[in-house]
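Annex B.
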Amino acid sequence: MTETTTQIPDPIPVTDPRVARAVELIWREAELLDRKEYASWNELYAEDAFYVVPIDPETEDFAGTLNMVYDDARMRRMRVNRMTEGYAIAAVDAARTVRTVSRFVPRSASDTEVVVRSAQVLVAFKRGHHDIWAADLEHRVRLSADGPAADRIAQKVVRLVDSEHAVPAAGFLL
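Aromatic-ring-hydroxylating dioxygenase subunit beta: predicted structure tokens.
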């Protein structure tokens, strides 16, 4: 009887310079969101990028399944406008947030793209009450030959740990 073994590829280290660039961009995104700098946040995204918060925690078919959020460039701009212009309850009564993004696990890395999974814990404070939002994130980051300042998020998927249950209205971006 012959024994078959599966070769597990060596993990990509977080210290890989390409991965480090992606992590820096992810941290910059978290900072902008906590500061409610939504227009600057949107500029971190590639024009063809998607920002997705699926309901089904296992789905990869975001276009073919129901999502809490499935934003292309047009929808991201509209969402930013609602949160920053005029009188909108999402903007006027928005929670203050502090998020921690950690547990970075590089899934793939090339000279043009890095895919990183991570964990996010977000604490939101509104009307004297704290809410905790926990999620697994996956960022696909497009690396630019022009350097880190030109890197862009090509896709962000936020898999809330409680996505299949009633989720309160956020009034902020995840």
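The chain has one domain: 17-160. DSSP finds four helices and six strands in the chain. Further annotation is deferred to the next reporting cycle.
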